[in-house]
Amino acid sequence: MAxxxxxxGGWAGTGAAVAAVQAGADVTLLERTDxxxxxxxxxxIMRNNGRFTATEExxxxxxxxxxxxxxxxxxxxxxxFPGHKHATLYDVAKIEPCxxxxxxxxxxxxxxxxxxxxxxxxxxxxxxxxxxxxxxxEGDVFIDATGSAGPMGNCAKYGNGCAMCILxxxxxxxxxxxxxxxxxxxxxxxxxxGSPGAMSGSCKLHKESLNKNILEQLNKQGVVVIPVPxxxxxxxxxxxxxxxxxxxxxxxxxxxxxxxxxxxKLMSPxxxxxxxxxVPGLESARFEDPYAGGVGNSIRYLAISPRxxxxxxxxxxxxxxxxxxxGPMVGHTEAIVTGALAGQNAVRLALGRKLLEIxxxxxxxxxxxxVNERVKAGEGxxxxxxxxxxxxxxxxxxxxxxxxxxxxxxxxVEASGMFNVYKQKIL
Length: 427
Description:
Layout: E1 3-7, H1 11-22, E2 26-30, E3 45-46, H2 51-71, E4 74-81, E5 84-90, H3 95-106, E6 109-111, E7 116-122, E8 125-131, E9 136-138, E10 141-144, H4 152-158, H5 169-172, H6 178-181, E11 198-199, E12 203-205, H7 212-221, E13 223-227, H8 251-254, E14 255-260, E15 264-266, H9 273-276, E16 287-289, E17 299-300, E18 319-321, H10 332-350, H11 363-376, H12 390-398, H13 406-416
Parallel strand pairs: 1-2, 1-10, 2-6, 10-18
Antiparallel strand pairs: 3-5, 4-5, 7-8, 8-9, 11-17, 12-15, 12-16, 13-14, 14-15
Helix pairs in contact: 1-2, 1-10, 2-3, 2-10, 2-13
């Protein structure tokens, strides 16, 4: 049986674990904090715009159990807000136990508070990862799903300092890149001005700190749009600093846009608290994540691995990458689908089988290939790619890949030969 070790228990690590265990591997998932899902603990948005298409493709390819677990935690479905249609909002307070339970039932070995600090090398490949405790975890193939944000020193150097976000580097230690520890030179994503990294795109407000009318509307409708007087609007350049460029629209500067994900998700990287509390209805507003959301947010895209379209890391024989490690990719769905490809290909590699590339006739395959093409051409590091907006969603629409027609998506997946590909054991 192939032994696959995954570093990072976010959405990318989740996708990798599901695909690898369904392919027949013995899977160990290592998470440095005490909870899975990483930024998924404060994210909460699925199926908006092209993510609908990608989600349906992923389900048909065999990842239905992940999205079924999400459905158990949904607060609102088919929500529209500026620039986005048919979004699903899940409850960030309920999602992690559901995902963890799903993984455990599948037989994934989960170890929390298990930060990977180094790798043990031999013959040009990784033999084991080394935890902070000194314990070595051996494997046949490894997957780097550690993300690209933190540690605190990077947020201080390239942002406004530690914003005390859900990543909690100060408690559990910062992210460590497997590829970096193995000697691979990684890319850094950039803001539009060329400075390193990008700021996480949203904050969360404590719902009970909102005006009663706003709170009732948010709970009922899932979204509230509050016009902001010109004097209280943030500077225009704050939008260019966002990782989530699909939300870098004028609407998000001229309005306070709140989404109900259990918290009140404020669609802005940061908002000065003294300005925020001058907006009618937000006089008592308090940040829930990051706690210093009035000053800054986490800085991401500081460690992107060079890779091919199977998600194998260039220069190493037995390391794959997923999520933000695989490119300047934004979003939970994007992390899940890249994780899944890395997970199955890890098993294929261990068993000496041909690695899988997802055809570009599918949105998922086109996305993985297009991001890689842009990054390796040196053109993509100042851009961020997502199914839900900006550069890639425009490509989806132009190339006819975006659709909400579930039957059409099914026909496309079946024609590509990818139907239930993640449910088949690799022999």
